Amino acid sequence: MGTMTNSDGERTAGAGVGTGADAGTSAGAGSERNKAAARERPARWGRASASTAAAATVGNRPAGRGGSPLPERSRELGGAWAQPAAPGAVPTGRPLRRRTRTPQATRSNALHPGAWWIWALGLGTAASRTTNPLLLALLVGVAGYVVAARRTEAPWARSYGAFVKLAAAVLGIRLGFAVFLGSPIPGTHVIVTLPEVPLPHWAQGIRIGGRITAEGLVFALYDGLKLATLLICVGAANALANPARLLKSLPGALYEAGVAVVVALTFAPSLIADVQRLRAARRLRGRPDRGLRGLLHVGLPVLEGALERSVALAAAMDARGYGRTAQVPPAVRRTTAVLTLGGLLGVCAGTYGLLTAEGGSYGLPVLLAGLAAALGGLWLGGRRSLRTRYRPDLWGTRAWLVAGSGVAVAALMIVAASYDPVALRPGVVPLVAPALPLGPAAAILLGLLPAFVAPIPKEPS
Amino acid sequence: MIRFEDVSVTYDGAAEPTVRGVDFEVPEGELVLLVGPSGVGKSTVLGAVSGLVPHFTGGTLRGRVTVAGRDTRTHKPRELADVVGTVGQDPLSHFVTDTVEDELAYGMESLGLAPDVMRRRVEETLDLLGLAALRDRPIATLSGGQQQRVAIGSVLTPHPRVLVLDEPTSALDPAAAEEVLAVLQRLVHDLGTTVLMAEHRLERVIQYADQVVLLPSPGAAPLLGTPSEVMAVSPVYPPVVGLGRLADWSPLPLTVRDARRRAGALREGLAEVAGDTAPRADSAVIPPSPSRPHSTSRLSRLLRRATPTAPAPAQTAVIESLAVRRGRVEALRRVDLTAAPGEAIALMGRNGAGKSTLLGALVGLVEPAAGSVRVGGAVPHRTAPRELIRRVGLVPQEPRDLLYADTVTAECAAADHDAGAEPGTCRALVSELLPGIADDTHPRDLSEGQRLALALAVVLTARPPLLLLDEPTRGLDYAAKARLVTVLRGLAAEGHAIVLATHDVELAADLAHRVVILADGEIVADGPTAEVVVASPSFAPQVTKVLAPQPWLTVAQVRNALS
């Protein structure tokens, strides 16, 4: 058994079952046959000799069933976003174009989820710098276009619609407040005057009803639009980045927290399914299944079911080796604790120093030292964890481009905000029509880059 | 490979040990089957191998369990993870990640294997289990058989030397079950993996076993032997063994093939008994009717008697060209079905064929996209729940969903109230279906079979003329199944129409007058049980396969014919 598991020349995909002897012979024969081939491309494969032979064996094999192993492997070794060698591709023609054409997304060339988040947060930062409705609309359009172009069929990708609805609700609430609670903006264009609710003298400063001015409404609209745009940017990141993979990129010491979040993420859908099933069961008992009461009554059984499922999952995870830890010398353990605690204390003290008037001199250094110590603690803590990572997302050129486009949008907007603040914050008193400043608009359009460089998601089969 | 040394397990708060005197050894590379009635502690024995009992479940384990030389007393489950792979009853509660490929890698990540080793093993396992096409799929979108294969794959990647499986095929349709068993067979033969497996559906697995461990009753010491030895004395046995015991074949046949070789004499004998009513012409007559015929002549008399009442009974339920859509998926298309009073219909077909949806449509949980459903003249999804339960009752796949109260008595009182029945109606039904159950028992403490009976009683309190059951035999042993069959036959005789969705071909053969086979949301076969079932290789019960071309369905029929 053991000899089989780790024998050097194991077959890769397409080989079916490789028993120890079988795998050994095939690897032996393969290395004979493929010595020349292996010599020709050692730099590219860059592996220990045994696995080079194994890889070469696979390479010589005709493409197996269900995704031939060769392109997968070469992609993995060749870089994060190397071209998939399409079997029928014509070798001649425009090589540069062929090399730079956006590939179809696979596990190997998937964009790092962090890149999507940086891009989206960049757009969000840009949105926070302006109240110009035209620029905000442009930002929403850019985010929406990229989502439409690069969204997958995965469940989390559907959250974009929910975020758009939430953004609309926020805008509506902001306008509702402006209508019913009045607005501090002095305005002259009265649209309508609502009856004002008389309030006692101690509630002065609060107004319910009263005059509604066009200026107040427009201000609320701009303000609400800014919030809505921020939400839509976050929604775009949510829809484009796989949350589970994002959590997989956490440092080893935080791995356990990451797993908890992943488990919670997969639990939520089954909880909803439970609620639906139990409401149906209420109907089978002849009780009304609609309304709040119906929902409340299934609460306890749903919680019970969720608890049972978590216990079963915990048992399964335990049996699969979750929480195995390496033996760490006590000195390292103590150092970890000191570094982490001290680092966090330093961060607190440094922040306090930065915020108070007297602490200007020591604030920043203490903060930085604390941060460094905390990161060191995290890194040392990671040594306790035995875990390895299966096919982590690599940060390749396309990830740089996507993240860079978001950063560029944010940076250019910040520059524009200090250079020409009036264009980014159109006045409401007096009421003027907002104009589209060309420079910032062009900067925002940079955010469209991911729609062209990110790998194209697969068509749903 | 696995050694139990005089092991007994007592859970906290239990007076008696759940298992006692367990003392056997599983040699390397064998497939050992753990059998026994419900509640004898099969899961406890399995849990002791992976160390989950007692490290995770609590309780006291006396004696010693060693796996590959490691004592589970000193090794926690996580420290056994590299030698033991465990797959529980419900694959869904086993998954930690969301996609197939990540799930396969998860165990290896925990063990800290090198990335290139992980990659290689994932590719191997994808091919070994035929999952390569599903590698990027979210696990939630897979079918039951696929999920079960992913669960097995996910514990295989760390290359454990022992695989422990608790009812791996119970929830699967016959084809998916064979898929899973073929994989296990391959692991044992090609990789030398030691497999210890518990399963109720012996007809599916017994022929693969090298040895069988029988736990005859709670607290009794287990019995170890070759399958045919153990089957000769086991209280649980598949129909093919039942037939062998009936015909006194020795050694007992375990497979249909073995039995067929020996069955020549039996077939001739049966052909003589069947006499002038030639089996083939008779096929539509054979379906087991509520009162079991003792001979064919009595059967035909009974049929003649039944004919006058049969002509035009008001149909209990009528479905006409029903279509149901779920998003873009057409779950059902052009389905026509009628159910007459006193008729038992089995809905069969692979997982996801639309069986549960059809039951849902009959009970008003699912709104038709086209066509009509009428149950006792009412349209189910437009009828108020209080009204509807008097016309149709459904026992869902998980009977526990129907039970809310803390005690059996409270549950019954609530059922009486819901149904507007006289107080005590439900309790009387419970006593009838489930004699000797205490009033203050918590429904959760009941066994699967008892819980099903309680849910059935709750549903029957409203006396619905149409009774629906979704997978009623999941997790039931043969004895509980036989009791269920008796109860349902009685109900059919009283004039209830019964529709049950099931994967269990033996149950369908035992109970149903008609079998309806669904595939991809369409009805592909609808006819008397004997006709439909005999014609289909995957839905034929074992007795039919052994005695073909004569259309016998169950051991009981054969016994009655011979006596």
Automatic annotation (TrEMBL), chain B:
Keywords of this entry: ATP-binding, Cell membrane, Membrane, Nucleotide-binding, Repeat, Translocase, Transport
Location within or outside the cell: Cell membrane
Superkingdom of origin organism: Bacteria
Region Disordered, annotated ranges: 277-298
ABC transporter domain: residues covered: 2-243, 317-545
Gene3D superfamilies: P-loop containing nucleotide triphosphate hydrolases (3.40.50.300)
GO molecular function, one term: ATP hydrolysis activity
One Gene Ontology cellular component annotation held by this UniProt entry: ATP-binding cassette (ABC) transporter complex
PROSITE patterns: ABC_TRANSPORTER_1, ABC_TRANSPORTER_2
Pfam assignment, any one: ABC_tran
Topology relative to the membrane: Peripheral membrane protein
Similarity field: Belongs to the ABC transporter superfamily.
Function (record text): Probably part of an ABC transporter complex. Responsible for energy coupling to the transport system.
Protein's name according to its UniProt entry: ABC transporter ATP-binding protein
Organism: Streptomyces albiflavescens
Phylogenetic placement of the source organism: Bacteria, Bacillati, Actinomycetota, Actinomycetes, Kitasatosporales
